Each structure stands twice: as structure tokens, then as C-alpha cells.
Amino acid sequence: MSQFHLVAPSGYCINQSAAQCGVKRLEEAGHQVENQQVIARRDRRFAGVEAERLHDINALATLKGKNRIVMPVRGGYGASRLLDSIDWQALVARQQQDPLLICGHSDFTAIQFGLLAAGNVITFSGPMLAGNFGAETLNDFTEQHFWKALRQPTYSVEWQGDGPDCEAAGTLWGGNLAMIASLIGTPWMPEIRDGILVLEDINEHPFRVERMLLQLLYAGILPRQRAIVLGSFTGANPNDYDAGYSLESMYDYLRSRLSIPVISGLDFGHEQRTVTLALGAQAQLCHAAGQSRLTLTGHPVLAE
After folding, report:
1. Minimal CA–CA distance to 155: which of 302, 25, 277, 19?
2. Which of 10, 200, 232, 299 is catalytic?
3. pLDDT at 304 over 80
4. CA-to-CA dists, residue 279 to 21, 74, 135, 269, angstroms
5. 114-168 pLDDT, tens per residue?
6. Quick one: which of 104, 103, 61, 58 has its CA closest to 82?
7. Contact call for residues 147 and 132 (beta carbons, < 8 A)
8. 270, 287, 292, 299: the active-site residue
9. What are residue 168's DSSP bridge partners?
10. Which residues are CB-neighbours of 20 under 8 A, at least 6 positions away?
11. Is 106 one of the annotated active-site residues of the chain?
12. For 153-190, b where at least 16 C-beta lie within 10 A, e where not — what string?
């Protein structure tokens, strides 16, 4: 079984019972869960003072042992405050020797991008402790895809996608759209060309999603990719004022502005049902007749 090492670089875990449920669920499955004290830590809206949250990340450089899975308790906000104080080179050196399997999403995207920018460190965009493993019912799809990603050196995710028939290959990268947009022009934005960019977000109106996508477009990031894959955008419901302007119509507009394929419909993001994707891995995307398949390889996995 595996050892889970918890970190809390972002927001305070308001749902303490969910986090404890996640710990119990993992322990009952035979896994060890260490560093549990970070769950209850709090400073205003954050999961502890800056020095505590920074230590969570920098201490990973000296974390001993194999088969360790690093997982944030939750997202929220706070990781951005730490970026200029993280010892990126020490973390890169640790990952080159014996990689930790680091998995999270949402606000944690900022740290994942920093690692990718600093040394092509592959991490996993997937479930976290409170929101996923601590859910009232653990989603079978999510759990199965999590372990598949962490155990199989080559794995595929398949879905009924929308978009043009296409084939594309390149480095897979992406995560939370708002966090990615916030990193443009900073040292923590990876310079990836000819990649496959996967995006998701939560509680953003379609026009706000569009505005962030246009920011990536105007910055030259979208046109440099081989393909864009859109995950879930939970809470992006139009209102009466929109008069037909919806997430789907916004997708069509994005496609009209790009010469590369945009494939939507992937179960990826803040929903209970989500795949786990290896950011920085090599990917092959195939979409034909409404069926999409993304195959990933080159990422670290748990030892047998």
C-alpha cells in the first residue's frame, strides 16, 4: 500500500469532517496518511501562516521513502503567495532522484506549473483529500482513474467529446484556467510549444471563461499548441441577460479563432467525477466520430 503525505499550501479546510472522512477512507483501504496536523491548521482564510504553508512545499525536497503520494488537503487560495519563496531547484533535484507522486488541482495548479517551468517535473492533476476522497460517497470513476494514472506507465482516458476529427501529439499540460491565466508573464509559466493544453474551472460565467481563454490566445499560448482539451466548467450557467450566449456558444467562438482542434467534454476538474492527468507527460490525442481518447506515457508511477 501507499503512503500519503498531506500538504496545505492554500485555503483553510472549512469542511473538517470531509477531510477526516478522506483520511479514514484511505486508512481503511490500507494506506498510511501522514502530516495530518495540516488539516486543522488555520490563519484567517488560509491553512496556516505563510511560513507553515511554505514549509509544506519546501520540505518535500527532503521527504524520504518510496511510493509516497503528496496530496493537498484542498485548494482555495494561497499558493500564489508562496511562489517566489519556494526552493524550486531543490524540489527539481528531489524529483530527479526519486520522484514523489504529487497530485492535486485548483489553486495547486500554480505550484504544479512552477515545477513544470523549473525542471519539467511531472505531477498529476487529479483528486484531493477533502473534496474527493472525503466526499460523502467516493466516486468510483474518480478513484479508478486516480490509481490507473499512478500505477500504469501508459494509460488512456476516453470520453464522448465534441470537436473536429483530429490526431495530435505533444506534452500534456494544463489545469485550472484562472490559475494559469494569473501566471502569464511570470517565471512560473512553463514555455511549452506543440503541446496539448487541458483546461477546467469552477464558478466562472461563460464570458469570464472566454476572457481568460482570450488572454491565453492573445499571449500566444493557445496558437502554439497542437490541441486544446476542455474539461468541466462547473457553475458556468448563463442567465436571462445572455440571451443564448452559453458555454457551448463560447466554445464555438473559440474554435473560430483558432486553427488547432478544440475538443470539449472531458470529465476533468472540480466535479466529483474526474480523470487524473499526468501534467508534463507525453500525450496522444485522437478524436473521431464523437469519440475521444487521450493516451499518456512517460510519467512516474508507484513501484510494485
Report:
1. 277
2. 200
3. no
4. 28, 19, 24, 14
5. 999 999 999 999 999 999 999 999 999 999 999 999 999 999 999 999 999 999 9
6. 58
7. no
8. 270
9. 285
10. 39, 134
11. yes
12. eebebebebbbeebebbbbbbbbbbbbbbbbeeeebbb
For residues 206 and 236, is the Cβ–Cβ distance under 8 A? yes
**CA count, 13 A, side-chain hemisphere, 260:** 19
Element (H, E) at 304: none
Residue 38 and residue 6 in contact, taking contact as beta carbons nearer than 8 Å: yes
* Catalytic residue (choose from 106, 125, 182, 232): 106
The answer to whether residue 1 scores a pLDDT higher than 90 is: no
Alpha helices in the chain, H assignment, sequence order = 16-28, 50-58, 88-97, 109-119, 140-151, 177-182, 206-218, 247-257
pLDDT at position 67 is: 81
Contact assessment for residue 113 and residue 80, using Cβ atoms and an 8 Å cutoff: no
pLDDT tens digits for range 212-248 = 999 999 999 999 999 999 999 999 999 999 999 999 9
Residue 45 belongs to what H/E stretch?
A: none
pLDDT of res. 65: 80
d(CA 171, CA 262): 16
Each residue of 37-67: b (16+ CB within 10 Å) or e? Answer: ebbebbeeebbbeeebbbbbbeebbeeeeeb
pTM: 0.97
- The residues, ordered by sequence, that sit 6+ positions from 248 with a Cβ below 8 Å of its Cβ are none
